Amino acid sequence: MSDTAYLNGEFLPLEKAQVSVLDRGFIFGDGVYEVIPVYSRRPFRLPEHLRRLQRSLDAIRLANPMTDAEWARLVQEIVARHAGEDQSVYLQVTRGAAKRDHAFPKNVAPTVFMMSNPLVTPSREQVESGATAVTATDFRWLRCDVKVTSLLANCLLRQRAVDAGADEVVMFRDGYLTEGSSSNVFAVKNGTLLAPPKNHLVLPGITYDVVLELAAMKKVPTETREIAEDEVRGADELWLTSSSKEVLAITRLDGKPVGAGKPGALFRTLYQAFQEFKRTVMRQAA
Ligand code: PMP
Fold first, then answer.
1. Within 13 Å of residue 15, how many CA atoms lie on the same side as its CB?
2. Pick from 42, 55, 153, 209: CA 20 to 30 A from residue 145's CA?
3. Does the model's pTM come out above 0.85?
4. Is 147 a catalytic residue?
5. Which is catalytic among the residues 16, 99, 106, 147?
6. Per-residue pLDDT in tens (0 to 9) along the chain, 286 residues
7. H-type helices in the chain, by residue range?
8. Cβ-based burial of 15 (10 A; exposed 0-12, middle 13-18, buried ≥19)
């Protein structure tokens, strides 16, 4: 099957999908996006992703070009046009193409783009060994809760991790944990799961919510509060969560072992709960 994309009302081969160089997504990074994991050809938590998309559009003052039902149909259609059982659907809405001017253009159609890639979740070995991370100062803007396509700061921060031979960065702002370059971060201390609050400094992750729901189901004591840098450095366990990484232990931070240096007991509980939950949800949707 050829790789098909959706652009402004039509499906076409990805390499044929083109936008204007005046598109505000290209010129200003003036757009929002979502990444929706698809398991067994079924989108996972689609209503939640569409709700977050609406929130992002509201935050950048851009009208939603489609209803949720229309989005759901499009997502299903792009999934149907790809062979993989597990996919990662990327969708993006920008403020459209207009003469370059910072102020919003009037009467310009937004650009709507969608593609699907294979969903690559961590291998068994990665789950067993965990991920490595380095720390960095969070120098992003003050609306990290909005899923905007302007991701230069996130790219610079991730590259720092890559340059250090690590998988992700763990960021601090004013001495407190925020998140990773493309993931949320949790800490565990003395059997309690610590979660940074959902505020303007972190992206409200869909996986973050799933993990907190599963922790409640498993009766894991949880505290949602600001987590100081030394608590992170002294944590028994650190995890990262995202739609593609699911739940993954961080086993080395700045080259030092996290806790015992291997995925911890609480991680194993939540990882298993996540895999079971996925299977149950997918069976129910079938
Ligand atoms: N934080 C950031 C900065 C991200 O880019 C992502 C991935 N989109 C997340 C957190 C995790 O969000 P989700 O669980 O919805 O993938």
1. 2
2. 42
3. yes
4. yes
5. 147
6. 569 999 999 999 999 999 999 999 999 999 999 999 999 999 999 999 999 999 999 999 999 999 999 999 999 999 999 999 999 999 999 999 999 999 999 999 999 999 999 999 999 999 999 999 999 999 999 999 999 999 999 999 999 999 999 999 999 999 999 999 999 999 999 999 999 999 999 999 999 999 999 999 999 999 999 999 999 999 999 999 999 999 999 999 999 999 999 999 999 999 999 999 998 888 887 7
7. 24-28, 46-59, 68-80, 124-129, 152-163, 206-217, 229-233, 265-285
8. exposed
Q: Is 45 exposed, middle or buried (0-12, 13-18, 19+ CB in 10 A)?
A: middle
Indicate which atom in ligand 1 lies nearest the CA of residue 37: 16
Ligand 1 first shell, C-beta below 6 A: 35, 154, 179, 182-184, 203, 205-208, 241-243
**What is the set of domains in the chain, with CATH numbers?**
4-118 (3.30.470.10), 124-283 (3.20.10.10)
129 Cβ partners below 8 Å, 6+ apart? 251, 262
Span from the CA of 107 to the centroid of ligand 1 (angstroms): 32
Nearest CA-CA partner of 208 in 180, 251, 241:
241
* Residue with token string 């046009």: 81
Tokens of 68: 């949720």
